[in-house]
Amino acid sequence: MCSGSLGLWGMEAIAAPMICTKNESAAAIMPQLLADLPSYSNRVIQRARRLDRQEDTFSYIIEAGLPDFRPLPLKQQQFTSAAADTTEQLFFTTLDKQYINDIPVYLENHHWLLVTPSSKGWAVVHLFSIVNRREPGTILIPPRNTTHGSVGKAIQLWLRDYNAYCAN
Predict the structure, then answer these.
(1) Pick the CATH number of 26-72+83-165 from 3.30.450, 3.40.50, 3.10.450, 2.30.30
(2) In this structure, are residues 90 and 79 in contact, taking their beta carbons and an 8 Å threshold?
(3) Helix/strand/coil for 40
């Protein structure tokens, strides 16, 4: 187990210490990632805000959970590669809260994360997301590439921190 890190002014950091073991699968680090994802995502969202806007509608990530590690059977639909495919698929859900005219609106988003091991540790290949729409008569929107969105950037930052923290 990695020891806790020191935060601002030498005080113990608020986040739980990361647990590092050798050769972890992506599924093994997913509980830690999901526990930290709301705070990482909310920091990404806050950094991206434009402070000069009169009206500002943005979401807060309240919770991340419901991991599912069963991959979609994509190998039958791909060409045969000479190199082994080390990409892992992970599915999870986030609950977002957004205020519209001072009324809270909750959105459930489903995410499909593809990660692969790299020389520095785990790296994001793609993140696809879809909003869960439960209203009858709603047109289903296909998943969109959110690799560079707030959740995608938050996962990249978390993996950067995890890989640096657990390098040895």
Answers:
(1) 3.10.450
(2) no
(3) helix
- Please check whether residue 89 is in contact with residue 112, taking contact to mean a CB–CB distance below 8 angstroms: yes
pLDDT of residue 97: 92
Task: Report helix, strand and coil shares of the chain as percent, to nearest 5.
Answer: 25, 30, 40
Q: Domain boundaries in the chain? A: 26-72+83-165
CA distances from 146 to 109, 128, 137, 143, 168 (A): 11, 5, 25, 9, 31
Spans of the chain, pLDDT less than 50: 1-13
Residues 104/97, Cβ–Cβ less than 8 Å: yes
pTM score > 0.85 for this model? Answer: no
